[in-house]
Design a protein that fits this description.
- The chain is mainly α.
- The protein has one domain.
- The chain has eleven helices and no strands.
- The two termini are about 25 Å apart.
């Protein structure tokens, strides 16, 4: 509990997490407001309110990567490792605190998006009743948390803020999309890419809103069921974190 308290203090006494939180909420909820206000031909749906989730996810991953790389940049991680020689415990505590914070942001962003859409377009039926609707909203919290774990793991491995941020952004925003350009096998490879699979959890069977494909997070053609898709995404994060912890214990701080 002491380690968790220390990592919580570290996280909330720096400016970047607060700015990233505001940015993530603004971009996610802002897109929901924009869609509800501009698209006068169609009433908002649960899916369309979550259109901006992927933009918020990017900001959360930046925040998570900075939470660990700034410690390496300013050398505070050395003092922590001297006080607590068990490096794995320290890094797991930091990962847990960052992931929990990301989960809270995801929850506020998702339900805030639904709320703002309902406020702008009161005629819309935005009740959360089905399994799909719960996954599309509350599920954002879980995806944010797992993505934060991935970003922290990348930060532990790279240790440089610019490099870690660049890596998580390029991979999540470009690599998984561009892989489809590989002849013959590109589409098959994409179906097993972690963030693409994570979208199956949020958009997967059945999508009871029958939404247009342009609304909400992009539908995923992954062959996994929604909950197995989340398990796959979490498994990828766990493997990456284990590699990061092993590396951190083998090299100098």
């Amino acid at each position: 509990m002491t380690l968790l308290a220390v990592e919580r203090i570290k996280l909330f006494t720096t400016r970047s997490p607060m700015w990233c939180t505001l940015a993530a909420l603004a971009v996610t909820i802002g897109f929901a407001a924009l869609i509800a206000a501009v698209d006068t031909e169609n009433l908002p749906t649960i899916a369309s309110t979550q259109f901006g989730y992927s933009f918020g996810l990017v900001v959360i991953m930046v925040m998570a990567a900075l939470a660990i790389t700034t410690e390496y940049r300013f050398g505070t991680i050395r003092a922590t490792f001297q006080a607590v020689p068990n490096r794995s415990a320290v890094l797991l505590a930091k990962t847990g605190v960052v992931a929990a914070f990301a989960a809270v942001i995801g929850l506020v962003a998702a339900f805030g998006s639904v709320g703002i859409a309902k406020l702008i377009e009161s005629r819309a039926d935005l009740g959360i009743n089905s399994a799909f609707e719960w996954r599309a909203t509350a599920g954002v919290s879980l995806v944010f948390a797992v993505a934060a774990v991935i970003a922290v793991a990348v930060g532990i491995l790279v240790r440089h803020s610019a490099g870690a941020v660049s890596l998580v952004l390029i991979y999540s925003q470009l690599v998984e999309s561009l892989v489809t350009l590989i002849p013959n096998v590109g589409d098959d490879i994409q179906r097993w890419m972690p963030f693409y699979v994570a979208n199956k959890f949020l958009t997967g069977d059945p999508d009871l809103t029958n939404r247009p494909i342009a609304e909400g997070p992009p539908p995923s053609l992954s062959t996994l069921s929604p909950w197995w898709a989340l398990a796959y995404f979490a498994g990828f994060a766990l493997v990456l974190l284990v590699i990061a912890l092993f590396t951190a214990n083998k090299r100098d701080a």
